[in-house]
């Protein structure tokens, strides 16, 4: 059987790099990727309860990514019960409506390590751990999902305006030189804080024509598919 590349989340992640420059400072990209988790959960249809709640617009992806009326750090993608006075917004091509959430039943946080991974790894791990704490602070018993992309390319170039910053393998390490250690630290320090946690291993140089490839699409698809099944089953268990 050929590996699945049609998961919404994997396809959206790929689109951040393939054919165009990756925008490191665009904070909306994490939202975009994380929100696709819910599209995949509904499309997989392993939880009749979740699918029914989505179809009736009782559950939505939160536009603000936090529970209404409860101050919290903003997450990349949250899913929960629609505020009674709010309107569910449907968009063409999307299965899950958008709207204001009264709570958080599933919270997803996305990080992407493309370059200078070890330099920023402590901050990234800290952000991941704090986000789990914020998801749980809103009350209830949310399912927390972490998705982290780790670049394994032999070279990489970032941009500041028109200025280019290529890796040189010495002062500025190539992604492949740091990927294994970055993944080790993520697994040992951050993964256990989440109910589900997945590393997305990829190669992207961020240089025209901006190629992208998964390190192992078969493995990535299987791991992500299994994650979706477990989240679906846990949803039925936690939210009767």
What does this structure look like?
The protein is of the alpha/beta class and 240 residues long. 38% of the residues lie in helices and 20% in strands. The chain has helices at residues 8-15, 28-44, 48-55, 117-137, 175-189, 217-238, and strands at residues 59-62, 77-81, 98-99, 106-113, 143-151, 157-160, 163-166, 196-204, 212-214. The strands form two sheets. A seven-stranded mixed sheet has the order 3-1-2-4-5-8-9. α2 packs across α6 and α4 runs parallel beside α5 (175-189). It starts with 7 loop residues before the first helix and ends with a helix. The model is unreliable at 68-75 (pLDDT under 50).
Strand order of the largest sheet: 3-1-2-4-5-8-9
Distance between the termini: 35 Å
Query: Per the principal axes of the C-alpha atoms, what is the gross shape?
Result: globular
Class based on secondary structure composition and strand pairing: alpha/beta
Q: In percent, how helical is the residue content? A: 25-40%
């Amino acid at each position: 059987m050929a590996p699945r590349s049609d998961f919404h989340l994997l396809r959206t992640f790929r689109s951040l790099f393939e054919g165009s420059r990756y925008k490191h400072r665009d904070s909306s990209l994490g939202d975009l990727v994380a929100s696709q988790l819910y599209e995949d959960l509904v499309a997989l249809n392993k939880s009749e309860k979740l699918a029914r709640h989505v179809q009736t617009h009782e559950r939505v992806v939160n536009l603000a990514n936090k529970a209404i009326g409860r101050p919290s750090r903003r997450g990349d993608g949250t899913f929960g019960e629609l505020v009674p006075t709010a309107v569910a917004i449907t968009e063409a091509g999307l299965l899950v409506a958008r709207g204001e959430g009264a709570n958080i039943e599933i919270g997803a946080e996305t990080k992407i390590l493309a370059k200078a991974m070890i330099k920023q790894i402590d901050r990234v791990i800290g952000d991941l751990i704090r986000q789990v704490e914020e998801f749980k602070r809103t009350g209830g018993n949310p399912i927390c999902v972490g998705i982290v992309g780790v670049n394994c390319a032999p070279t990489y170039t970032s941009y500041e305006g028109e200025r280019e910053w290529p890796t040189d393998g010495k002062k500025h390490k190539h992604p492949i030189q740091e990927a294994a250690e970055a993944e080790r630290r993520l697994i040992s320090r951050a993964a256990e804080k989440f109910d589900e946690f997945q590393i997305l291993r990829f190669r992207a140089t961020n240089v025209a024509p901006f190629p992208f490839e998964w390190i192992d699409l078969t493995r990535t698809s299987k791991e992500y598919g299994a994650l979706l099944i477990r989240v679906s089953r846990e949803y039925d268990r936690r939210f009767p």
